[in-house]
Amino acid sequence: MKKDTVYAQLLDSVGAFTFDGRVADVFENMINRSVPGYPLLLDLIGQLTARYAQPDSNCYDLGCSLGASTLKIRQQLPASCHVIGVDNSAAMVERCRTNMSRDNSQASIEIREESMQTTDFTNASIVVLNFTLQFIPDEQRPDLLARIAKNMRPGGAMILSEKICFEQQSQQTQMTTLHHDFKRHHGYSDLEIAQKRASLENVLIPNTEQQHLERLKQAGFSSAQMYLRCFNFASFLAIK
């Protein structure tokens, strides 16, 4: 696992965060050191897939990056299922395809380089958005979720993980402080934390827990609930 040093040196100007080759090379290290509870989150994606995936259906990983969650999905599926990983970063797709080639799970798989806003959803029983909806323009999120819900089988599950924000400023400040403590504990400097935060400004736009729950129900899911939260990172389960 190559160490993330993308923001280790002082930059003259901090550009907007992008999932380019430089980030793709260190993404596994970056996300493990940046997202509290990430290994547990991946294990639970596998567990939920085993519970809710239906035979002869499609299972989507939207924003699949290097394929960590894609593998968790595929490894829990019967041979009759088909896995579709989607990412709009060419660098991520290239590395994801290489990673998938090492896996011998029985379900068929394809990795597509495309935007999830244009993905054609059909016959879906599992859809995973693992810290990817937050990078979609806020006004486009309801339509995407509605299209997913419309094309899911009854009883299918959507698993959504996001960085969230809080209505009360005191809670927002506390959770942000604890998250930064987590990153320091995993070796990031104050400079790295500050520059990474600046790069994500106006790129990663979080919503509150209530906004997520209301949006999922408005999209057409019969139920939605938060099932995991670590500081300001949360996972939601929505059932068609």
Write out key terms for the chains shown.
single chain; 240 residues; alpha/beta; eight-stranded mixed beta sheet; 8 strands; 40% helix; globular
Summarize the structure.
The protein is α/β, with parallel strands linked by helices and 240 residues long. The protein is built from eight helices and eight strands; from the N terminus they run H-H-E-H-E-H-E-E-H-E-H-H-E-H-E-E.
Walk me through the structure.
A hairpin with a 2-residue loop joins strand 7 and strand 8. Helices cover about 40% and strands about 25% of the residues. By secondary structure, it is α/β, with parallel strands linked by helices. It contains eight helices and eight strands, in the order ααβαβαββαβααβαββ. It is globular, with a radius of gyration of 17 Å. Strands 1, 2, 3, 4, 5, 6, 7 and 8 form an eight-stranded mixed β-sheet that branches. Helix 2 packs parallel to helix 3 and helix 5 crosses helix 8.
